[in-house]
């Protein structure tokens, strides 16, 4: 029997063992459900929450047109309605049916809100009031036509020259980037832990002794890593594809091509990251003999993953093209999570992607040797946790 | 004669195996042979070195010195894959079903899919596991887990069997089934090396026995050969004799007195007729016999009191 067949048999056992468990099916279904929920939430609740409902009463009703326009220039979507009775309007604000009630003459508006007035809406209202006051002042000067002055003032503004074409899809790209970063983080954490738990299971159940009387340690480890990696890859692909299809269908995403590209890059980086972390997780797992000790020995590894995730969220949101982001995203422990995020934002130069992939592959080769050696040295030793140095000595 | 046999019959040869753990010599120049078709009982106290020797044979532990050969060739990975092994610390995948587990192990040992399925079903039936074939191993009783473990050692029709304590934890019926299976395997030309603390069973079952103590082989051979090496023991019943009559007889040692019967160990070349004459001198002799020591007694003699 060839080594390849042995590795394939071991990988196939892992595939069967995982794909058949209820927890895997439930886990995938729950992830998909959460994703659906998130998308629907985005398209309905958040969409509705962006509209500010303003009630106009008394003299303020004349503002129904100008308020909408003024607010739009400040990024607030106002739906103005007329309220006959200010008292009833106040009650509506108290009940949350209105976000604000505006009353009084245009030059001295009064606003009733629940707790605070949205800053942009306040500026819009202030501008309207100031215009009204200005118009009154200008009207006192005889040789001026207030409307013409106001029109001239309204036309005046800075001339903006953009160095880049504006990216209308910026928000969507960021959302896609954050989703892929979160998915990669969860997948690497979950399947890395599974590798470690699988190693500990074979060690604690002692099945490893009859296995190692048949196959070599590296075959056993490689088979396990490949098997679990394929399960993780399939799960990530399914969840990602469902997410893209749903978000496109509900029009939360209008960039399905970019999202799909991100998913493909995400799968690529999942593979690299998984290979990187799996050897470390396996080596760590092989040092202990009982499942209860697994979490403690994995803590340093999971901490690095958590760090990559937290850094990823912060850096991608604030400075996706900054020096720190660029440096961290080519370093192997962080690259599998940060780089696909930058790619999703279209902020990753091809050279940096290639460098990150090359560095990660080199690290994978190094860690596979080191991890394999620790694993082979520790896998047959039961009892208390094995010091790293002894495992390396074999 | 032995040399000729060794040439003609394949054998598992353990040759000068040494293994130290720190200051403890688990194996110290352990050498013996298990010939094809032979049941070899490996006997020794706890920590005597049986398990370490077996793990060296299977390559699970690397020996510090010495060599293990099968059919004249040093063992390599491909050869060992055709061995069947029952480790001291039992272990199977707890959440895997019995049938799947056996099929998987048969395939790992080089069987094709169909062959693996047939062999797994066959051993499930032979070891009385039919009603448990779809159960997870962790749901079985310990005795039944032990049967699955035996099936795992046998499922790939191994060329050589190395079984560490295969009879422990089995009920009497299962012991009979396993004994029959081991005899049948040996009959098919497989060398069977197994360890056991049940010496009566070893005596009944084995062609040859090896006794190990503190990492060293202290005796090896058929039970009759071990008996021959242990000297002559006679039992004398002389009811009229005064207690202590046999003390100081030339070339003899009293090894025990039981129900008035004196058991005497004779040194090499001592004439048993002289002992009989001495006994007759004390009065009537009702019984005078040569004693065939059991393996238990031979074992006690071999390891001494210090074990």
TrEMBL record, chain A:
GO cellular component, one term: membrane
Localization (cell): Membrane
Protein keywords: Membrane, Transmembrane, Transmembrane helix
Topology in membrane: Multi-pass membrane protein
Transmembrane segments: 21-41, 174-200, 221-247, 267-289, 296-316, 322-341, 353-372
Domain spans labelled ABC-2 type transporter transmembrane: 22-366
UniProt-recorded name of the protein: ABC-2 type transport system permease protein
Source organism superkingdom: Bacteria
Gene Ontology molecular function: ABC-type transporter activity
From TrEMBL, chain B:
Keyword annotations: Antibiotic resistance, ATP-binding, Nucleotide-binding, Transport
Entry keyword Transport: yes
One Pfam family it belongs to: DrrA1-3_C
GO biological process terms, semicolon-separated: response to antibiotic
Gene Ontology MF terms: ATP binding; ATP hydrolysis activity
Main localization category: membrane
Bilayer topology annotation: Peripheral membrane protein
A GO term from the CC aspect: plasma membrane
Cell membrane keyword on record: no
Protein's cellular compartments: Cell membrane
Domain of life: Bacteria
Gene3D superfamilies cross-referenced by the UniProt entry: P-loop containing nucleotide triphosphate hydrolases (3.40.50.300)
Sequence ranges assigned to domain ABC transporter in this UniProt record: 12-239
Name listed for the protein in its UniProt record: ABC-2 type transport system ATP-binding protein
Phylogenetic placement of the source organism: Bacteria, Bacillati, Actinomycetota, Actinomycetes, Pseudonocardiales
């Amino acid at each position: 029997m060839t080594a390849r067949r042995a590795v394939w048999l071991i990988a196939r056992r892992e595939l069967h063992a995982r794909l058949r468990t209820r927890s895997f099916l439930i886990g995938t279904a729950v992830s998909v459900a959460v994703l659906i929920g998130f998308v629907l939430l985005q398209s309905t609740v958040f969409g509705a929450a962006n509209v500010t409902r303003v009630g106009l009463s008394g003299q303020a009703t004349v503002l129904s047109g100008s308020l909408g326009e003024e607010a739009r220039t400040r990024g607030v979507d106002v739906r103005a309605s007329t309220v006959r009775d200010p008292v009833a309007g106040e009650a509506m604000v108290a009940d949350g049916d209105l976000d604000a009630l505006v009353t009084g003459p245009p030059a001295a508006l009064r606003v009733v809100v629940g707790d605070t007035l949205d800053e942009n809406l306040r500026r819009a209202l202030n501008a309207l009031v100031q215009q009204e006051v200005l118009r009154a002042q200008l009207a006192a000067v005889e040789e001026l036509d207030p409307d013409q002055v106001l029109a001239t003032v309204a036309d005046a503004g800075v001339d903006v020259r953009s160095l880049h074409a504006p990216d209308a899809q910026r928000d969507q790209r960021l959302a896609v980037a954050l989703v892929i970063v979160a998915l990669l983080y969860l997948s690497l954490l979950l399947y890395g832990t599974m590798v470690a738990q699988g190693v500990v299971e074979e060690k604690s159940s002692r099945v490893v002794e009859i296995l190692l009387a048949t196959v070599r340690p590296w075959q056993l480890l490689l088979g396990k890593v490949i098997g679990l990696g394929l399960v993780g890859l399939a799960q990530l692909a399914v969840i990602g594809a469902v997410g893209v299809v749903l978000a496109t269908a509900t029009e939360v995403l209008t960039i399905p091509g970019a999202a799909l590209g991100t998913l493909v890059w995400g799968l690529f980086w999942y593979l690299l990251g998984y290979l990187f972390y799996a050897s470390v997780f396996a080596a760590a797992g092989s040092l202990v003999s009982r499942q209860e000790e697994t979490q403690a020995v994995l803590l340093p590894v999971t901490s690095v993953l958590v760090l990559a995730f937290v850094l990823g969220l912060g850096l991608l949101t604030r400075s996706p093209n900054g020096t720190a982001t660029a440096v961290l995203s080519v370093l192997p422990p962080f690259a599998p999570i940060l780089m696909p995020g930058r790619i999703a934002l279209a902020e990753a130069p091809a050279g940096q992607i290639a460098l990150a992939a090359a560095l990660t592959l080199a690290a994978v080769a190094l860690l596979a040797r080191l991890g394999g050696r620790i694993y082979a040295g520790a896998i047959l030793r039961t009892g208390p946790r094995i010091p790293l140095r002894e495992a390396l000595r074999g | 004669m032995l040399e000729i046999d060794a040439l003609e019959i394949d054998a598992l040869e353990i040759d000068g195996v040494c293994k130290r753990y720190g200051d403890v010599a688990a194996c110290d120049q352990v050498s013996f042979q298990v010939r094809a078709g032979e049941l070899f009982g490996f006997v020794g106290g706890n920590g005597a070195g049986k398990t370490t020797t077996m793990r060296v044979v299977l390559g699970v532990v690397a020996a510090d010195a010495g060599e293990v050969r099968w059919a004249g060739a040093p063992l390599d990975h491909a050869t060992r894959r055709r061995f069947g092994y029952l480790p001291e610390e039992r272990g199977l995948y707890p959440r895997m079903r019995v049938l799947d587990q056996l099929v998987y192990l048969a395939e790992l040992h080089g069987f094709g899919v169909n062959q693996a399925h047939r062999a797994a079903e066959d051993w499930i039936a032979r070891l009385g596991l039919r009603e448990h074939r779809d159960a997870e191993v962790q749901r079985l009783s310990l005795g039944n887990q032990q049967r699955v473990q035996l099936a795992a050692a046998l499922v790939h029709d191994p060329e050589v069997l190395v079984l560490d304590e295969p009879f422990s934890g089995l009920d009497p019926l299962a012991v009979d089934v396993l004994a029959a299976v081991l005899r049948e395997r040996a009959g098919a030309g497989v060398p069977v090396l197994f360890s056991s603390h049940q010496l009566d069973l070893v005596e009944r079952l084995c062609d040859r026995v090896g006794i190990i103590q503190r990492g060293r082989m202290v005796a090896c051979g058929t039970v009759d050969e071990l008996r021959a090496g242990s000297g002559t023991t006679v039992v004398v019943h002389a009811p009229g004799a005064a207690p202590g009559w046999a003390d100081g007889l030339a070339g003899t040692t009293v090894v025990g007195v039981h129900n008035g019967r004196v058991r005497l160990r004779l040194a090499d070349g001592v004439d048993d007729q002289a002992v009989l004459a001495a006994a007759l001198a004390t009065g009537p002799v009702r019984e005078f016999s040569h004693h065939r020591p059991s393996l238990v007694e031979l074992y006690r003699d071999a390891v001494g009191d210090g074990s």
